[in-house]
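Changelog-adjacent note: as of this version, every example in the card shows the full chain rather than a window. The one below runs 433 residues end to end.
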Amino acid sequence: MHTDLVMAKKPDPLGRDRTRGLTAAQDDTVHEKDADPAGTGRTGRDRNGPESRVKTFRKRAFNGVPDADWNNWHWQMRNRITTRNDLERIVHLTESEQSALAGYRTLLPFAITPYYAALMDPEDVDSALRRTVVPTVHEFMHLEGETEDPLNEEGDSPVPGLVHRYPDRVLFLVTDFCSTYCRYCTRSRMVGQHNTRNFTMERWERAIEYIESTPGIRDVLLSGGDPLTLSDGRLEWLLKRLRKIPHVEILRIGTKAPVVLPQRITSKLVRMLRRYHPLWISIHFTHPDELTAETMLACRRLADAGIPLQSQTVLLSGINDDATTLKQLFHGLVSMRVRPYYLYQCDPIKGSAHFRTSVLKGQRIMQQLRGYTSGFAVPTYVIDAPGGGGKIPVGPEYVMGRDGSDIVMKNYKGMQYRYCDVIGGDASDGVIH
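Full-length structure tokens:
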């Protein structure tokens, strides 16, 4: 399966192999003239903005690499930063990072695309994007309640690679590969292990046969790993095969490619995807620093093709766990035609304690968002219940209870209001107490 990832002999991690990759089409190139990518107030000429970082990074770490290569997703994949030596040439590593990288093979694999590495702050060890992708020794600390499979996906898998938890939809894990690995990944037990024998056409066929034989399934979410690391041909084979199943109404793709590998969203890919409507794409966003011109272009292409886009964000301690940061992210997403969908409480995978914030803090953040910005810019705050209970909303409580026939509520400012809950002369059945 991984032959489709174009993982050829790896050139020098800092780009000193000047071999040109595939020629990028004219409309697959992002230029600095693409201004303010997401209403963030920053442009490609902003001294401290992401575009400025990319330009500086390229000069320092990949000097001389042509735009045609840099803007080619195959080149980005071949030149991923995957070792301590690679990373040391880009940032000054802390002792904690050095120690983790020395033994990272026992944990979640480490890999960052050159593009995403360019967005990291090379000096600030606490910068948001750096913390999400560079391992530290905190990953070796395992606390009570943390497990390899906290959501019990394996327990809800009728066949390998397929999770059937909800009645009308399934999660189809089509690959274990990502271009960039988030350190808090829910599937750290399986991603990046290169168990190619587990992701064969035979395994895909078994999953598809299960879907075909289960008429109640109307919605199929392709995930992994990242499905957009597959070649166009492999991905289209899957979409075409699933689209032939009469009772499958909706196809979805879960990905972080537009954020960490926006070069993947080529015009050719988008032309292929639009043949399989209704198709939705869920994109994993973390922080406003990800809202670059390249990501805006990727989302624009998808949206212009009629593909509804929604975001999923994990609440992470010290990274995005404040209302100001999240509001900036969500406003930027909405301007890019990406609907904020879920804000997840961080799953208790092994070694994730340093990323988790309290649920109470998450609820308070939601209180600071709801009513203070557009409703469609506010996602649903959920806990994916450990043990396989599914997603449970844990937003702030606005209904305080019942007083006779009245429902007593408070609004976003904490002011109380009443709603007379009488239908046909009788109070409702009293389910709210």
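Structural remarks: Residues 398-433 form one domain.
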